[in-house]
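Hey everyone, long-time lurker, first post.

I ran two proteins through the pipeline my lab uses and got sequence/structure pairs for each. Pasting them in order. The first:
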Amino acid sequence: MQWIGAIIILTVTTWAGFDAAAKFKNRPGHIRQWKNALQMIEAEMVYGQSSLKEVCESISKNLPAPIRNFFLNLVEDKQPCADFSVLWSTQLNKHWPQNALTKNELEILQQFGSTLGQHDLVQQQKQIQLTLHHLDRELSEAMDVCDQYQRLARGIGVLSGLLVIILIM
């Protein structure tokens, strides 16, 4: 009976370690998806002269999950909203647990959302470029720590399970 408990403990802690490692692995990809979305917003708004709703519909059709879900929710939200930045922030907070991103990226995207649709096209393009620059910096940092912390998280998961088993037995 003790062996079954030990196997369960080791399985759970190993799974937790691999789950944490997956977040480190997925973070650069999610940042790239957001960068692609911002570039699409820029192209649609500046060159296509599209409205925010049309931009969100287009992005939701062209990007993979989890970011697709965010833009779908923006389009499908039926609650009356006078300010798009409030809707952006609300949906971003609802969507955030699906991402492997950190609070820094959340703040960058919330700051961008507060300016979206508030300026003329030239200023909007500058805001998009500024946000892309911040996301580039975060992407660089994410890639630096990805391999290191990914292996560390897996190792800690397995080793903590072994430690618990040793202490119990």
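...and the second, right after it:
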Amino acid sequence: MKLVTVILGLIILLSVPLSAGAITLINNDVILEAQEYGVKRSKMPLSDFLQPWLAYEEQAAIINETTERAYLYTPFLLLAYDARDKAISKQSIELANSEQILADYAGCLVFSIIVNGNTEKFSDNVQVIIKQEKKIIKPYHAVINPPVKNPWASNEPHYTAHYYFYFYEQDVVLSKPITLTVTTKDKQERRFYFELPNFK
């Protein structure tokens, strides 16, 4: 995926609230750690930068840039990404900015999901849920971008869709794993496993 698309997606992501205590308890020390993490890795390709917050589709036959995947945007990642972005553009990184990001994103978990299909309409009416033990949790908000024709050399799949889904944090037990399940119009189900306590 082109860097511009990813950046635009993150701009959209930063327009909807996320939690100040989703995975790692956030305090001033953690804010500074996240800022340092982002600055030190500002020259790293974005795909590598996001790797610690990544889950590949459970049945993926091969792992490469075309593999379907999902990212969990924790508060730490949001702060680190903001610091990375500011370091790249040579802006100052202020504690107040990070505190504002946390305030803006209080109370929810956000997932970025990238899936592939063979038709331009494959992702119409996409359904996304979290399964945690016997509980099924539905999102309260979604940003669904239209599929784009992919540039891969192979003939299939032809299209890639990128979504953001937002869940209330209070509905999820953060000390237990979840499976993020995505079902597209073609009735294909994708599953992404997140061991929540392992995410910073």
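Reply from user beta_strand_b:
Welcome! Quick read of the second one: Helices lie at 3-13, 28-40, 46-49, 75-88, 95-104. DSSP finds five helices and ten strands in the chain.
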